UniProtKB/TrEMBL annotation:
Source organism: Fusarium oligoseptatum
Annotated residues for binding of ATP: 181-185
Family affiliation: Belongs to the GDA1/CD39 NTPase family.
TM region(s), chain numbering: 506-524
Gene Ontology annotations for the cellular component aspect, listed alphabetically: Golgi apparatus; membrane
Record GO biological process: CTP metabolic process; UDP catabolic process
UniProt entry tagged with the keyword Amino-acid biosynthesis: no
Name of the featured protein: Apyrase
Any one Pfam family match given in the protein's UniProt record, by short name: GDA1_CD39
Region (Disordered): 470-496
Length: 589
C-alpha cells in the first residue's frame, strides 16, 4: 500500500503467553478515492500482517517486573519492527492489553508490571505511546468480550452487509463466545424485547463508516473469571481432592482421564511411583460430565434474573436469532485431539468421538500418538488434558449458556426461543475467517480505525460505554484515535469546528478560542519573551526525539484511517461462515 499505509500493533498479554498482532490499512483519503456508494457505507478494512506468540505470560514476571522488558517485550518488539516500515514506526500506535492472567494478580503487582512495561516501551521504541493508562492496561473481561464481538461481526460481514446476514426480527449480528485458560466471555446483541427490558445492562458501541456516518449497536457482555479451562480444572481437582479425603490418600480416581493415565495434581505426566498424590484415570466420561456440572455454579443465588452461570445476570438469549461463534478453547477443544482442522462440528458426533476416546486405555492412545511423526510429545500433552476440557466445554455451552442441543435431548438454558428444532447452527467454533485469525485485538483496531474517519455533521466519538439514549456517556472509552483534520490533541473524536457547532456550546467555545489567541499574542508580544519560548521549544526538541511535535507523534503525517479489504476475493455471499476455517461447510444464519 506504500505511502498510503498505516499500521497498528496490539500485544495480547494472556495467561499463558503474549501474542503480538501487527495490522495494516490504507489512509482514509486512499480508501475513499475510488470507493463506490456501497463501499462508503462500510467500515475501514484492516489486514493482519503478522501474529506470533511467545511464552510465558507476563504475570510470571510479577515478582521481577524490571526484567520483563529485556526478557519478554524485546522479542515481541523485534517481530513488530520486521513488519512496520522504519518510516512508519513513529506514526504507529502500540497497545499492550493484559487479560485474565494479570487480573488474578494483586493490584500492587499489576501496577508495578504495567509501569515497567510502559517505561520500557516508551524508552526502547518510537511507537506512538502518549498515555500509559490508555495504551498499557489490564482490560476487563467485559471489554475483552466486546472487542471480540466487534472482531467477529467485522469479519463475518454482519456490520457491512446486514442484508446478507438476516436472522429475522431485524437482527443481523452474531454472538461471541471466548474461553481462555483463566476466564470465559460472552457478548451478543439481545432481541428488541430483551434489549428494552435490560437496556441498563447493555453497552453502547459506536463506530463510523467511511462516509463518516455513525454506526451504533447495543451489546451485552459478561465475563466469568475462574471459568477458563485451566482455572476450571484447578477447581475440579480441588473438589476431587476434598471428595476423596485430602491428605489421607495418595491415588485419587479421576473419571475425566482415560483409563490408566496417571498425572500429578498439576497435570504433569507420571511414570512409576512418585512421592506426591496422583490422579489416576478411570475413563468414565459420563461420570466426568456429572461431576464437572456443579462447577458451573448454577445453584448460586441470582439477584438479578435471569442468570446463566455462577449467579451472573444475562438477558434472555433468543436462539432463533442469536447465533454464536466460539474461539480459543471452543475451537481448540473441538478441533485439536477430537477433530481435524476442517472437521464439521455437531454435538452428537462430537460427544460420540469424545466418549470413545475418553473411555479408552491410555496405553492404546499413547501407542497411536507415538506413530505420528509430527510433535508426538505435544500431542500426548494435549491428549492428557483433552477429556476434562471436552466435558467442561459441553457443560459450559449446553447447560451453562444454554445453546440448544440440536439433535439431542435435555439441557438447561436461558433461551427465549420457542422452537429449537427449527434452528440451524446455533453455535460454531471458529479459528480463522477468510484466513484472518478471529482475535479480540482486531476489534480494538477496528475501533481505532473507525475513529480516524472524519464524521458527518456533529461528531459523536467512536468507542463504547454505558448505554444511553442520546449523546455520550461519562464512562465512554474512546477509540484512541482522532478523525482526519482534527485540531484537538486529546483522544476525543471531536475537532474544533465540531465543538463550536454543538448546540449550547457555541458561545463558550468562541470565548475559549478567543482567549487562547489573546494569551498567545500576549506571550509573544515582546522580543525577549519570543526568544525565551522558542529557545525552550528548540532545546526540548533537541533533547527528545528529533523534529517531531506532540501532535505528529500522536497522529502522524499520514494518520488518515482507511483500509485494504479483508475479503479481497470471493463473493460476499460466501461469508455466512462459508470462509471460516472450521466448520464452514454449512452456512451459519
Amino acid at each position: 500500500m506504500g505511502k498510503s499505509s498505516q499500521y497498528g500493533v496490539v500485544l495480547d498479554a494472556g495467561s499463558s503467553g503474549t501474542r503480538v498482532y501487527i495490522y495494516k490499512w490504507k489512509n482514509h483519503a486512499a480508501a475513499v478515492k475510488d470507493a463506490s456508494v456501497t463501499q462508503l457505507k462500510t467500515l475501514p478494512k484492516i489486514k493482519l500482517k503478522e501474529s506470533k506468540k511467545i511464552h510465558p505470560g507476563v504475570s510470571t514476571f510479577a515478582d521481577k517486573p524490571s526484567e520483563i522488558g529485556v526478557n519478554h517485550l524485546d522479542e515481541l518488539i523485534k517481530i513488530a519492527l520486521k513488519e512496520v516500515p522504519t518510516d512508519k514506526v513513529s506514526e504507529t500506535p502500540i497497545y499492550l492489553m493484559a487479560t485474565a492472567g494479570m487480573r488474578l494478580l494483586p493490584k500492587p503487582k499489576q501496577t508495578a508490571l504495567l509501569q515497567s512495561m510502559c517505561t520500557y516501551l516508551q524508552a526502547s521504541t518510537k511507537f506512538i505511546l502518549p498515555d500509559c493508562n490508555a495504551h498499557i492496561q489490564v482490560i476487563s473481561g467485559e471489554t475483552e468480550g466486546l472487542y471480540g464481538w466487534i472482531a467477529a461481526n467485522y469479519l463475518l460481514g454482519g456490520f457491512d452487509h446486514p442484508e446478507e446476514h438476516d436472522h429475522g426480527k431485524n437482527h443481523h449480528t452474531y454472538g461471541f463466545l471466548d474461553m481462555g485458560g483463566a476466564s470465559a466471555q460472552i457478548a451478543f446483541a439481545p432481541n428488541a424485547t430483551e434489549s428494552e427490558k435490560h437496556s441498563n445492562d447493555l453497552k453502547l458501541v459506536r463506530m463510523r463508516t467511511l462516509d463518516g456516518s455513525p454506526a451504533e449497536y447495543k451489546v451485552f457482555t459478561a465475563t466469568w473469571l475462574g471459568f477458563g479451562a485451566n482455572e476450571a480444572r484447578n477447581r475440579y481437582v480441588e473438589s476431587l481432592w476434598d471428595q476423596y479425603g485430602g491428605k489421607t490418600i495418595q491415588e485419587v480416581p479421576d473419571p475425566c482421564m482415560p483409563v490408566g493415565l496417571t498425572t500429578t495434581l498439576r497435570g504433569d505426566y507420571v511414570e512409576g511411583k512418585v512421592d506426591e498424590p496422583v490422579l489416576v484415570g478411570t475413563g468414565k466420561f459420563d461420570e466426568c460430565l456429572s461431576v464437572t456440572y456443579p462447577l458451573l455454579g448454577k445453584d448460586k443465588p441470582c439477584p438479578d434474573q435471569p442468570c446463566l452461570v455462577n449467579g451472573q445476570h444475562v438477558p434472555g438469549i433468543d436462539f432463533d436469532i442469536n447465533h454464536f461463534v466460539g474461539v480459543s478453547e471452543y475451537w481448540h477443544t473441538t478441533h485439536g485431539v477430537f477433530g481435524g482442522k476442517h472437521t464439521a462440528y455437531d454435538l452428537a458426533s462430537y460427544q460420540s468421538i469424545v466418549h470413545d476416546f475418553c473411555t479408552s486405555d491410555w496405553q492404546d492412545i499413547e501407542s497411536e500418538l507415538e506413530k505420528r511423526k509430527k510433535s508426538p510429545e505435544k500431542k500426548a500433552e494435549e491428549a492428557r488434558a483433552a477429556c476434562f476440557k471436552a466435558s467442561w466445554l459441553i457443560n459450559m455451552l449446553y447447560d451453562g449458556i444454554g445453546i440448544p442441543r440440536v439433535g439431542l435431548e435435555g439441557g438447561h438454558g436461558n433461551s427465549t426461543a420457542k422452537e429449537t428444532d427449527k434452528m440451524e447452527d446455533p453455535f460454531k467454533p471458529v479459528d480463522k475467517i477468510d484466513g484472518i485469525e478471529l482475535s479480540w485485538t482486531l476489534g480494538k483496531m477496528v475501533l481505532y480505525a473507525a475513529g480516524q474517519v472524519p464524521p458527518q455533521g456533529t461528531a459523536l466519538p467512536v468507542g463504547f460505554g454505558t448505554n444511553v439514549e442520546k449523546g455520550t456517556p461519562d464512562d465512554f472509552e474512546h477509540a484512541g484515535s482522532v478523525p482526519i483534520g482534527s485540531h484537538s490533541g486529546d483522544d476525543d473524536d471531536d475537532d474544533l469546528d465540531d465543538i463550536l457547532k454543538k448546540p449550547g456550546s457555541s458561545t463558550s467555545g468562541i470565548i475559549a478560542f478567543v482567549f487562547v489567541l489573546l494569551l498567545v499574542a500576549y506571550l509573544l508580544r515582546k522580543p525577549e519573551r519570543r526568544r525565551k519560548i522558542f529557545g525552550m521549544v528548540h532545546r526540548r526538541r533537541r533533547s527528545g526525539r528529533p523534529g517531531r511535535s506532540l501532535a505528529s507523534k500522536l497522529f502522524g503525517r499520514n494518520s488518515l484511517g482507511s483500509y485494504e479489504r479483508v475479503m479481497e476475493e470471493g463473493d460476499l455471499s460466501d461469508f455466512e461462515l462459508g470462509d471460516v476455517d472450521s466448520d464452514e461447510k454449512r452456512p451459519l444464519r
